[in-house]
Amino acid sequence: MTRPGDKQDTELIKRIAAGDRSAFQVLFARHNLALYRYLNRMLRNPAVAEEHVNETFIEIWRAAGKFENRSKVSSWMIGIARNKALSTMRKRADMPLDDDYARQIEDAADTPEQMALKTSKADAIKACLQKLSVDHREIVDLVYYHEMSIKQVSDTVGIPENTVKTRMFHARKQLSDLMKSAGVDRGWP
After folding, report:
1. In the chain, what are the domains?
2. Is 149 helix (H, G, I), strand (E, B) or coil?
3. What is the per-residue pLDDT across 132-164, written as a single tens digit (0 to 9) for each?
């Protein structure tokens, strides 16, 4: 599915490759919020997500001339952002756990008061999404929030299309079970 903005994005990338700062500003305005939301869901840290958005756009400025138009510009941009986030996540996993860092880690368990506040379906879905594995959450995020096709997700994440489909199947099943446990009739509106 080609959207009207896809051709405009491709033209913006060509102009950016030629050094057009105004085209860069337009691209940033069009995509920075979506990239931020994607990175924040992935990294679960707003400050780090914002920093990664900026780093992603710096990389886009530098690499615009290398864009080969084999995918949508938005998919290419998410791929850059994803690689930066995965690098950060690997670094975090390698960091030794000290007391200061341990105090910063939030307890994932909800208190009874928090559970009572989660009355809307949207909040319940968000909470259940956070309980999915990183791989499953990423697939759901790209398919449903970024409206990517299976092929686009496959290209962005670098896994076979059948793996995307399998992960999507398991993620939806697990999400459905989590939604039932949370007291919501259907996981998908």
Report:
1. 1-95 (1.10.1740.10), 110-183 (1.10.10.10)
2. coil
3. 999 999 999 898 888 889 999 999 899 999 999
Q: Determine the Cα angle at 134 with ends 129 and 139, to 5°.
A: 75
Q: How many CA atoms lie within 13 A of 69 on its CB side?
A: 11
- Region 4-19: mean pLDDT is 88
The gap from C-alpha 131 to its chain's centroid, in whole angstroms, comes to 15
Q: How is 135-178 classified by DSSP, letter by letter? A: HHHHHHIIIIIS---HHHHHHHHTS-HHHHHHHHHHHHHHHHHH
pLDDT digit string (tens) for 85-114? Answer: 988 888 765 555 556 655 655 555 656 655
Q: Is the four-CA dihedral 56, 135, 43, 114 of positive or negative sign?
A: positive
Residue 119's SS3 state is coil
- Distance separating alpha carbons of residues 171 and 115, to the nearest angstrom: 22
Concatenated DSSP letters for 74-98? HHHHHHHHHHHHHHHHHHHHHS---
E-state strands within the chain: none
